[in-house]
Design goal:
The complex is a heterodimer of chains A (about 140) and B (about 140). Chain A is built from four helices and six strands; from the N terminus they run H-H-E-E-E-E-H-E-H-E. Chain A is of the alpha/beta class. With about 140 residues, chain B is an alpha/beta fold. Classes of the chains: A alpha/beta (about 140), B alpha/beta (about 140).
């Protein structure tokens, strides 16, 4: 009888001890859920994408290049003029890729007129990126008076 | 019958609180890592399409509306004001300047902005654009 009582007491003590060492995670869970809801509500999955371009410094020196190394590109409203020849986008990509395979360091010089739409400029830059042309020169042509 | 009862007696009540908290924390970390905050545009514009790469979050945002109005970090400013604001932030020249301009805008409006940026030595530019899809590429 005594031993049974002893066992009962012992179990009670053990269970009390285990209760004492338990970590109540419900508060952490609540907090996590609260922050989770905040992030779900405030987050936006809009992908910010664009074309990177590095402008030359105003103190940069100019360098005279040999003529065959430079290709002059004039974006127009619907097509491109490359070395005085009007071509569409696909032809331009083809020609630039061909030129790139011959001369890796050639320079694409983009001549922009003031009235040309901005999307044409971005398209010209996009073409240069698609052809992996590293050296792009940008020339702004003033309006003819 | 006896066996069944003894088996049911052995079953314990299981609390799912801890595992729920774990899940919540996991999702929280995911959302914290992947969320991007909306950039201060100031005006809604239709950006051009191009072959793009992911732009940095920590940029200086300049928008140009279809009417040619300039917005610096979401605030409408004149070109002179924009120049002054860039001058004030000359310590942040290494940061990328994200230009969000309307696709149908005349290039001269963007050119004058580029001129100011170059004058103030903000040389890292990103022209915000929509990614050009494969279908559009084949057109």
């Amino acid at each position: 009888m005594k031993s049974l009582y002893y066992l009962y007491r012992k179990r009670k003590i053990v269970s009390r001890e285990t209760q004492r060492h338990e970590f109540d995670s419900s508060a952490v869970g609540d907090l996590a859920f609260l922050l989770l809801i905040f992030f779900i509500v405030t987050s936006s999955f809009i992908l910010r994408q664009g074309i990177f371009f590095t402008l030359p410094s105003k103190n940069a020196s100019s360098k005279l290049m040999r003529e065959p190394v430079v290709m002059n590109l004039y974006p127009t409203e619907k097509s491109f003029i490359l070395n005085n020849e009007a071509i569409d986008r696909d032809d331009l990509i083809r020609k630039l890729k061909k030129e790139k395979s011959i001369n890796k360091n050639f320079i694409l010089s983009i001549f922009m007129k003031p009235r040309i739409k901005y999307e044409r400029f971005v398209d010209a830059l996009s073409v240069s990126k698609e052809c992996k042309i590293r050296n792009v020169s940008l020339k702004y042509m003033e309006e003819e008076k | 019958m006896r066996k069944e009862r003894s088996f049911l007696k052995k079953l314990k009540m299981v609390s799912l609180g801890a595992s729920m908290a774990d899940m919540a924390l996991l999702l929280l970390v995911f959302f914290m890592a992947t969320t991007t905050t909306e950039p201060p545009k100031g005006v809604e514009v239709e950006v051009p399409r191009a072959k793009t790469v992911g732009a940095e979050q920590d940029s200086i945002y300049i928008s140009i509306s279809g009417r040619g109005n300039y917005y610096f970090e979401g605030m409408e400013v004149s070109l002179e004001e924009l120049k002054n604001r860039l001058l004030m932030r000359s310590g942040e020249r290494d940061r990328t300047v994200a230009i969000t301009a309307d696709r149908y805008l005349d290039y001269r409006v963007v050119a004058s902005l580029l001129e100011i940026l170059q004058e103030n030595e903000f040389l890292n530019i990103v022209f915000m654009s929509e990614p050009r899809d494969r279908g559009a590429l084949l057109q």
